[in-house]
Write the C-alpha cells for this entry.
Amino acid sequence: MNIVVVGLSHKTAPVEIREKLSIPEANLEESLATLKGYPNISEVAIISTCNRLEIYAVAEEADRGVVEITQFLSEVAKISFYDLRKHLFALLHQDSVRHLMRVSAGLESMVLGEGQILSQVKNTHKLSQKYKGMSRLLDRLFKQAITAGKRVRSETNIGTGAVSISSAAVELAYTKVDNLSSKKVAIIGAGKMSCLLVKHLLAKGANSIAIVNRSQRRAQELANKFSDASIEIFSLSSMNSAIANSDLVFTSTSATQPIIHRALLEECLPDGKSLMLFDISVPRNIAADVSEMDLVKAYNVDDLKAVVAANYETRRQMAAEAEVLLEEEIESFENWWQSLETVPTISSLRSKVETIREQELEKALSRLGTEFAEKHQEVIEALTRGIVNKILHEPMVQLRAQQDIEARKRALQTLQTLFDLDIKEQFG
C-alpha cells in the first residue's frame, strides 16, 4: 500500500482556480465516499482551506491512485483533466508524509508559521474519522502530523507573533489608508477569521466596526469577546446599509457564490462614495466585476503575498529549527509504517500457537474428568493463555522494534519457515 497526496495551493494555482476546488464541509461525506469508490483507493482525507485543497489517500498502486484523484478533482472543478494537471502537485510515499508534517507545522502556509492550519488538520482528521474516510494508515499519519505541529509551536518560536491571513489583510488595509482610526469598517461573517480581523483592526487603531452576519446571535457572541470596543451588529438583510456606511469592508464567509457584486454596490453606494473591499474567502465573496467601478478597490487573498513576504525573512531561521523536529516525527512514522510488515507474520504465528493451545487444553480437560474440568476450566484456561502470551511477548516486541529493514525481513522469513506459517496480507 502507498500513501499519496494530490492537491493545489496558493503556490500552484490562482484564487480563481482554487475556489473551483473548494470542498465545503457539507459536501465532505459525499466526496470521501466517491473517492473511496475508486478501485485503487482504500483510505482518504481532504484538507480544504482558503489557500489549499489536498487529498491524502492510501492507494494500492500509487500512480493509479494519483490519476483517480485527479479525475475526481476534474469533475468537481468542471475543468478538463489535462487543463487541471498544470495546477496540481502529486507526492508519493515519504514525500507525502513529509508534506503533511510541513502543512501541520505551518511551513507550507502563505503566512509562514501560521497557527490556524493546525486546527484545520485536526478538523480534517476528526471529520475523516466521522465519515469513515480513513483507517489505520491515515489515522496514524494525521495523529503524527498533529503531534508534529504541536511540537513546532511549543519548541520553536515560529508561532510567536505569527501573522495570519486575517492579520495580513488588516496590514494591507493599513498600508492603503491614511488613518485607520478615522475609517468605518464592516466585517461580513462572524467565524474565526472574522474574530481575528476584529482583533487586528482594534490593534491598528480602528474604533468603528460593524459585523454583518446571518446569525445575529453568533455576531453578538463575537462582539462580546471585545467588550471594551464599540461594535455594531447587522443582520444579513441589512448588509447593503452596512456597506453604504463603511469605508472598508472585509468579507469572510463560507458562501459558495459571490455575495457582493457590481450591481449591488451601484444600488447601495451614494454618488461619489469610495470603498475598499478585502476578500479573504475562498471561494471568493466578492465578484470580479466590482473592480470595474472607478471608486471601488477590491483585494483578495492573492493580493496578500507582498505583505507576507515582508515577514518571511525574519521567520526563515525559525523554520529551519522546525524542520529538525519534523524529521524526528517523520522517522517515527516511517518506523511504525515499516513495522506493519511484521503484522501478518505475528498474527499468523499467534493464531497457530493459539490453535495448538486450544487443542492441548481440550485433551487435558477430557483426561481430568467432567467434574474437575468444569470446576477448574477457567483457571486452567487462564494459565495456558498466560504462558502463551509470555512466551510470545518479548520476540514480538523485538521484531516490531527492529529498525534494520533487512534484519527484520530475515527474522520474518525465519519465523515463517520454522513454524510453516500461512501468511495473508492484513491491512486497514
Summary: The chain has a mean pLDDT of 90.
